[in-house]
Amino acid sequence: MSLLIGICFGFFTHFLYLFFLIFRSLFVEAKAKDIPVGFLDPQLMSLNSIKFDRVAVLQYVQKAFTKYTSKDFIMFAYNSCGHWVVVIVIQKWNKVIYLDSNRSGNHDFSMLKLLIDE
Questions:
Q1: Alpha-carbon span 16 to 32, nearest angstrom
Q2: Is the pLDDT of residue 25 over 90?
Q3: Residue-averaged pLDDT of the chain
Q4: pLDDT at 9 over 80
Q5: Average of pLDDT values for 29-46?
């Protein structure tokens, strides 16, 4: 059983590292091409973080939205308990777009929506 846990943890660690590299490359490319997009830290943008320390996450989001008012888009990865979703906020249109590969619609983004709306 401990071998299986070790394999799962190893896979999860590699997945997070790969995810970080992809997100980092998006950041570098956006900066190089002067694309008006701000990025939020995916470590803070998770359902668990919102549940554990909602006030800290809310303060982070409010500060970031203020910092990125000149940006057309704000992007971040959101982890809704084991499933990653890319979220794009278009402030000037008051729109939020969720890019979710799981089309079943079984994910509840209500806590994130409430946080963004505050």
A1: 24
A2: no
A3: 75
A4: no
A5: 76
Distance CA 85, CA 104 (A): 13
Report whether pLDDT(59) > 90: yes
Same domain as 47, residue 27: no
Domain range spanning residue 14?
A: 1-34
Q: Are residues 108 and 61 in the same domain?
A: yes
The C-alpha atoms of residue 30 and residue 104 are separated, in whole angstroms, by 31
What crossing angle do the helices spanning 54-67 and 110-117 adopt, rounded to 10°? 50
Domain count, the chain: 2
Tokens of 23: 């997100």
pTM of the predicted protein model: 0.71
CA dihedral 77, 79, 82, 83 (to 10 degrees): -50
